[in-house]
Structure formats: C-alpha cells, structure tokens
Give the backbone structure.
Amino acid sequence: VTTPLKHPPAPEAVVVDPWTAPYWEATRRRELTVCRCGDCGEPRLPPGPFCPRCQSQAVRWERLPGTGSLYTYTVIRRGALPAHAASVPYAPAVIALDGVAGVRIISAVVDCDDTALAVGMPVRVVWHELADGNLTPFFTPA
Ligand SMILES: [Zn+2]
C-alpha cells in the first residue's frame, strides 16, 4: 500500500545560542548553511566553541546548495504519543549534504509517498516554519 508521507511532529521553537544563531538566521532566508573551522576548514556540526580537529575558536559559515542524498531512513506508522497520531506516517531520515563531504544531518523526507523512498536517492531541502519564526529543513525527492 502506497501512503503519502506527512510532516513529522516538530517543536514550536528551537533553542538558539551564540554558536547556532547564524544557522537559524540563515533558515529565515531559506538558506541551508554549515559551520566550518575558520582556521583548518573542518566542518563543525553541531556548531560549538572549539574545532574538533585543531581546537581553534574561529568559525566561518558557508551556504550549501540545499541538495543531498538519502543516507538512511525509517517510516513511523504509529505515533509514540497520542498527540502524534495525526502526523503518521512520517519518515525520519539521515541526509548526506552536498557541498560538505562527510556531513550528514537528521531530518525527515516529506511530500512524497512512502514507496518512493530509496537509500541513495537525491533529495532537496524544503522548509518547515516553526511557531517562533525559525525554519527547520526537511527534504523531498529532487
Ligand atoms: Zn580547525
């Protein structure tokens, strides 16, 4: 049986700190970004005060193309909480992002049927607006 996937349950707001603020500001422009070490270029995900490779505190932010590939996924068909019943089925997924080798983010695939999912399939970002005005990235088949 083919079933359209829904948007997963999402928070009303996100916690923003000085290290993640540039990411959330970019989402308001519908831009997917990644934080890199300002000295050695190592991706810093999640962003934090020290580079995991060289311990530098310098950072720079790069805009990503917003495309990637489906690294792995599952389909949730029964809500963990009664409040989630209206959100199933949804597909939490790990997305390998184009433009930053080796970096994957946890998200969800939306706006397609469950039978369309396949590991390795190309995807592109779609934005889900939260109540606080920030946006969170979901992905759909490219
Ligand atoms: Zn570094």
